[in-house]
């Protein structure tokens, strides 16, 4: 659809863009990225024919840009600029209708039913129909933005050029606009070339990205390749980290602020642990990075409070998340900052231990009830029955964990727990074999992310050794206490 071939040029003879070559296929949503002043707007101006270039060629559908007449080019290419200054005192509908100009024929231009239908449709799609008779000068920045997008869409172009289309738009309109553009590209074959400052929106919606750096192409590739930590750090000179989007296969980047509220070195230990009959809690002086299977606060996150709550054996687990959240609130814990677990065991049977090594330490807390014990290798013999009898394991690490170490910590702790059950010969009552856990066990790894960097947590690494030992010993002790209680 569009071919830019070795284009160089800029303003007053100075070459802002140098030797730019790339192609955009029909129906692509193509993002242009780059730091301030890297030449993004200059490139769009050249493609739209506003700014002549000194060298190279720009071809649209194989024909040189210079060979198109003004009106013919306007039928092919529409430009939506954040700097649109054509407000004057037109109404919204009149402004959108100007987009039909390129399609009107002859000296006596008539307004056809097709023109009217298209204008009404694009106004509906951009959510501006309700104020179509308002003067454009009375609109907010975001509303104006949508009017100019509607005007560009009314032009029914084959190529739509956008300069930061989401600028001024609130969150929901950003999403609606980009969803709409995506729909127009996939269903109508519209080709969109858009400048983005928001790398995450570009990563989420674009098929390909062109990254400009000082007027040259750094890379032209799929988002996952362009949005690489090292590349973005070098081009934008800023600290960022890449994360997968939780729902979509798209790269997302987060900024790493220089002033980080979690940099104070802290040590989580038993002085922060409170045990009552109702719940065990630990409040950390600062948020900890967590990976857990708690009823509240599961998955990965940052949490500051940790609660293991006693519930009776006949606790109704139907809407346990909602019920647990309201319980936490009633006890003064903020659910969004808390990892919450449940257990039916007596909380005073808790076992905990602080283990220290060179420059880091771990604090492990275990409650264990094994009435519900299951041999994982024979679990198909069990029917699904969610009861709160469970082993809850908390591992606080006073150190910095990699993502790998978080996952390995869970594996190592599980192995240590299984071994404790094995050595105590805890039986699965259905199969009569040695159990490996209970059906509702929960685990928490919570790291201060300050101090010593701990890359790994496999069983024979320094961190893994402490986890193995503390989890084995605490699980053993907690099971013994609970078994002892049953006997008496
Ligand atoms: N009309 C102009 N006359 C002269 N120089 C200009 C003109 N417009 C832009 N420039 C210069 O060209 C360079 C590239 O500008 P351009 O607007 O293309 O960058 P950009 O990547 O779009 O930046 P931003 O992210 O800040 O919008 C800048 O150094 C700028 O000062």
Overall description:
InterPro entries: AAA+_ATPase, ABC_transporter-like_ATP-bd, ABC_transporter-like_CS, AdoCbi_amidolase, P-loop_NTPase. GO terms for molecular function: ATP binding. The protein is an alpha/beta fold and 488 residues long. The protein folds into two domains: 2-255, P-loop containing nucleotide triphosphate hydrolases (Rossmann fold, 3-Layer(aba) Sandwich); 270-487, 4-Layer Sandwich (L-amino peptidase D-ALA esterase/amidase). It has twelve helices and 24 strands. The strands form six sheets. Strands 13, 14, 15, 16, 17, 18, 20 and 23 form an eight-stranded mixed sheet that branches. The chain has a six-stranded mixed sheet with strand order 6-7-8-3-9-10, with helices on both faces. The protein has a four-stranded antiparallel sheet with strand order 2-1-4-5. The radius of gyration is 31 Å and the shape is elongated. Adenosine-5'-triphosphate (ATP) is lined by residues 11, 16, 34, 36-42.
């Amino acid at each position: 659809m569009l071919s830019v071939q070795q284009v160089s040029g800029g303003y007053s003879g100075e070459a802002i863009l140098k030797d730019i070559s790339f192609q955009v296929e029909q129906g692509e949503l193509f993002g242009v990225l780059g730091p301030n002043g890297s030449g993004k707007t200059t490139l769009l101006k050249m493609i739209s024919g506003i700014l002549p270039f000194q060298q190279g060629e720009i071809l649209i559908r194989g024909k040189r840009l210079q060979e198109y007449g003004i009106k013919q080019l306007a039928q092919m290419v529409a430009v939506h600029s954040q700097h649109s200054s054509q407000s004057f005192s037109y109404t919204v509908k009149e402004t959108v209708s100007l987009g039909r100009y390129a399609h009107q024929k002859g000296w006596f231009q008539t307004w056809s039913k097709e023109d009217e239908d298209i204008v009404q449709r694009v106004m509906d799609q951009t959510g501006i129909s309700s104020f179509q008779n308002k003067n454009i000068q009375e609109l907010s920045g975001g509303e104006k933005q949508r009017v100019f997008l509607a005007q560009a869409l009314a032009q029914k172009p084959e190529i739509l050029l956008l300069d930061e289309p989401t600028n001024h738009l609130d969150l929901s309109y950003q999403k609606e606009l980009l969803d709409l553009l995506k729909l127009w590209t996939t269903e109508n074959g519209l080709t969109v070339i858009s400048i983005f400052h928001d790398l995450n929106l570009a990563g989420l919606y674009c098929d390909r990205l062109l990254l400009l750096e000082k007027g040259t192409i750094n890379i032209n590739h799929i988002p996952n390749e362009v949005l690489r930590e090292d590349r973005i750090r070098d081009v934008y000179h800023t600290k960022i980290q890449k994360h997968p989007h939780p729902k979509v296969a798209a790269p997302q980047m987060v900024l790493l602020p220089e002033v980080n509220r979690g940099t104070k070195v802290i040590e989580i230990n038993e002085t922060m642990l409170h045990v009552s009959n109702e719940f065990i809690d630990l409040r950390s002086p600062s948020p900890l990075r967590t990976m857990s299977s708690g009823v509240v606060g599961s998955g990965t996150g940052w949490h500051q409070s940790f609660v293991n709550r006693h519930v009776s054996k006949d606790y109704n687990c139907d809407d346990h998340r909602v019920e647990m959240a309201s319980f936490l609130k009633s006890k003064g814990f903020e659910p969004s900052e808390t990892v919450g677990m449940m257990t039916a065991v007596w909380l005073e049977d808790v076992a905990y231990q602080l283990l220290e090594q060179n420059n880091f330490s771990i604090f492990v807390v275990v409650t264990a009830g094994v009435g519900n014990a299951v041999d994982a290798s024979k679990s198909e013999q069990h029917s699904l029955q969610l009861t709160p009898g469970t082993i809850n394991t908390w591992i606080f690490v006073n150190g910095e964990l990699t993502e790998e170490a978080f996952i390995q910590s869970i594996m190592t702790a599980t192995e240590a727990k299984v071994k404790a059950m094995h050595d105590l010969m805890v039986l699965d009552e259905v199969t009569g074999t040695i159990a490996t856990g209970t059906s509702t066990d929960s685990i928490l790894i919570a790291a201060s992310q300050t101090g010593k960097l701990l890359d790994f947590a496999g069983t024979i690494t320094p961190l893994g050794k402490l986890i193995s030992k503390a989890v084995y010993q605490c699980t053993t002790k907690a099971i013994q206490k609970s078994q002892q209680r049953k006997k008496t």
